[in-house]
Structure formats: C-alpha cells, structure tokens
C-alpha cells in the first residue's frame, strides 16, 4: 500500500474526524501488560469533529483553541503531530484548529479520530510519505482506537483493536444517546467484575445477530444513566453500548423509524441521529493509492 495523495494542498481545508461505533465487543483475553484482547466490529457514523491545519512560519505545534479541560500538551492532536515530527525529524510546524462536535468519554472515539486525522493529513501536508501501516502503528501508541480511523474502512478487529479486516456491515440509520455521565475507558477495563474470557466468535456469527458488548453490565452497574438510556432506546430497537460507553445506540432499517425514535427521545435525552458508513469521510476526501 502506498501513501494516499491529497487532491489539493489541503492547508486551510476542513478535514473530517468521524465517530465510530462498536457494533459488538467481546473481551477474549488479556495481555501481560494488562491490555485486553478484543473482538470488535468498527463502523463509522456521519457525525464528525472537523480539523483545519494552518501553516506557521516556524517549527511550532499549537492549537488555535485548546479544548476546555484538556491541557494542550496532552491533547491527542498535538501529541499526534509531535509524534510525526519525532519519527521523521520534520522541521515544519502547524497550528491545529478543532471544531469539536463529538462528546468526550462517550465511546465514540472522538479524541482518537482527531489524532488519526492529524496523522493522515499532516503526513501529506508535510510531505512525509509515511505508508498507512506506519501511521497505524504510530497511532496505536496514542490509543487502541486510533488505527481504525487511519485505516478508514469498517472492520472486524482483533488484538487490542489493531488487527483489522475490512467488512461491510449494513449501513443503517442510527440513534445515539449520550447519557449525562463521562465513562473512563481505563476504569471499566480495571473493573473486577468485567468478563475477560468470552468465547471467540466468527464474522458469520456476528452477521447472524451476535451483538454482545462485554462491558455493558459493568458500565450499567456503575452508571445508572447508561442503564436508563439502554432501557429508553430498547423501546424502539435493540439497544447497545459502544466501546466502554457512555453512549448507547440502536440501528434502524429506515430513516422514518430512526426519526420517530429520535423525536421522542430528544425530549428527555441528549440524542444524535446519524447514518452508519463503511468508508470514513476522511478517506472520501483523499485519493486512494494502491489499497
Ligand atoms: C473500548 C474501545 O473504545 C473499543 O473500541 C477501545 O478499546 C478503547 O480504546 P482507547 O480509548 O483508544 O483506549 P486507550 O487510550 O488505548 O486505553 C485507555 C485505557 O484502557 C485500557 N485498555 C484499553 C484498550 C484495551 N484493549 N485494553 C485495555 O485494557 C488500558 O488500561 C488503557 O490505559
Ligand atoms: N482532541 C481530543 N478530543 C477529545 N478528547 C481528548 C483529546 N485529546 C485528549 N483527549 C482526552 O481523551 C479522553 C477520551 O476522549 P474521547 O473523546 O476519545 O473518548 P471516547 O469517545 O470515550 O473514546 P474511546 O471510544 O476511544 O474510548 C478525553 O476525556 C480527554 O481527556
């Protein structure tokens, strides 16, 4: 696979960083370093943060406006840019502007997606020509969810989420509830009552309807708002947790059915109406190399 080429220069453009859903999530083991071995299915949705890259005259990395509560040096976009510089010795700089739409700590992977967009776009804007595989490996050092956003296709994932196999789940309408709580991924993976020995399943079993998320009981027990959201959504369709939460979602075969649920639920919840997509909108803004 060669690096992907950008149609135009891309400086000053708005670049998408989409959200993801985990359509199922099984914990099938644990590595010696404590990280959990998963089986999961990633699909993107058309809800996005948007990033703009502004040229600067020196080698500095900065944010136009830091996200409240996230120090600039720990922001995943800044860390992604620094990582590229450290890896390549690139002497260029950038000012990154982030239009933040995705809720943080929601299990939608917003921070990871922002980081992936930085890796993919700066790789091109800075003329670094790192291959996608290298960007995915760099991304993995920032977070387990970063590689899928670099990869850009809906996928069956194993390992900690870095072993990816392209699949094409149905692109259905989705209603997502963001309960009024912030779930730390780390807290859930540290829980004593987390199932860590699920039986592995096949893609065919997932396609036939095996949608279990092994984190759901642990998260529901600790966060009443998540349990309530799962219950509210289940009035309309099968309700599921994405990642370690806090967001819960349900898929709908028609836009009408999704809108109906959305209209009812928005009276009581922070709710999003979205569409599942198997190709990341970030990829759609790029010309594809030899993929
Ligand atoms: C739950 C998922 O969202 C599913 O897509 C991801 O596995 C989480 O990915 P992420 O948010 O990028 O997570 P990271 O930032 O890499 O890890 C946060 C913390 O969760 C724990 N963690 C994460 C992923 C994993 N497979 N096993 C873990 O035990 C680790 O303690 C880690 O310190
Ligand atoms: N650019 C960023 N956007 C969002 N969060 C960031 C960013 N940089 C650092 N963070 C930190 O990362 C934490 C997790 O944010 P994120 O939005 O990725 O959560 P999430 O949706 O639960 O992700 P995941 O599904 O990968 O666990 C935030 O609480 C915040 O402290």
From TrEMBL:
InterPro entries the UniProt entry points to: GHMP_kinase_C_dom (IPR013750), GHMP_kinase_C_sf (IPR036554), GHMP_kinase_N_dom (IPR006204), IspE (IPR004424), Ribosomal_Su5_D2-typ_SF (IPR020568), Ribsml_uS5_D2-typ_fold_subgr (IPR014721)
Single GO MF descriptor: 4-(cytidine 5'-diphospho)-2-C-methyl-D-erythritol kinase activity
Ranges of residues in domain GHMP kinase N-terminal: 76-152
Binding site for ATP: 103-113
Recorded metabolic or biological pathway in which this protein acts: Isoprenoid biosynthesis; isopentenyl diphosphate biosynthesis via DXP pathway; isopentenyl diphosphate from 1-deoxy-D-xylulose 5-phosphate: step 3/6
Residues annotated as domain GHMP kinase C-terminal: 211-269
E.C. numbers: 2.7.1.148
Reaction catalysis annotation: 4-CDP-2-C-methyl-D-erythritol + ATP = 4-CDP-2-C-methyl-D-erythritol 2-phosphate + ADP + H(+)
GO biological process, one term: terpenoid biosynthetic process
Stated role: Catalyzes the phosphorylation of the position 2 hydroxy group of 4-diphosphocytidyl-2C-methyl-D-erythritol.
Name assigned to this protein: 4-diphosphocytidyl-2-C-methyl-D-erythritol kinase
Encoding gene per record: ispE
């Amino acid at each position: 696979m060669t690096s992907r080429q950008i149609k135009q220069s891309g400086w000053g453009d708005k670049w998408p960083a989409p959200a993801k859903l985990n359509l199922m999530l099984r914990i099938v083991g644990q590595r010696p370093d404590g990280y959990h071995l998963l089986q999961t299915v990633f699909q993107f949705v058309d809800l996005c943060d948007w990033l703009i890259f502004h040229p600067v005259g020196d080698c500095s990395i900065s944010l136009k406006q830091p996200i409240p509560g996230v120090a600039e040096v720990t922001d995943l976009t800044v860390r992604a840019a620094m990582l590229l510089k450290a890896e390549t010795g690139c002497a260029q700089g950038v000012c990154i502007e982030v239009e933040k739409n995705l809720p943080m700590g929601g299990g939608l992977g917003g921070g990871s997606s922002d980081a992936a967009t930085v890796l993919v776009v700066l790789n091109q804007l800075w003329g670094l020509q790192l291959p996608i595989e290298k960007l995915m490996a760099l991304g993995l050092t920032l977070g387990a969810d970063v590689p899928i956003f670099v990869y850009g296709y809906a996928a069956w994932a194993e390992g900690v989420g870095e072993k990816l196999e392209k699949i094409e789940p149905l692109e259905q309408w989705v209603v997502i509830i963001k309960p009024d709580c912030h779930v730390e991924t780390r807290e859930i993976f540290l829980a004593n009552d987390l199932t860590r020995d699920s039986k592995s399943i096949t893609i065919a079993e997932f396609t036939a309807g095996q949608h279990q998320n092994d984190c759901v009981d642990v998260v529901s027990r600790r966060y009443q708002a998540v349990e309530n959201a799962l219950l509210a959504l289940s009035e309309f369709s099968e309700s599921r947790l994405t990642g370690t939460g806090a967001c819960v979602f349900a898929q709908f075969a028609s836009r009408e059915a999704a809108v109906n649920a959305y209209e009812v639920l928005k009276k009581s919840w922070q709710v999003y109406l979205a569409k599942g997509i198997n190709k990341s909108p970030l990829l759609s803004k790029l010309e594809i190399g030899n993929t």
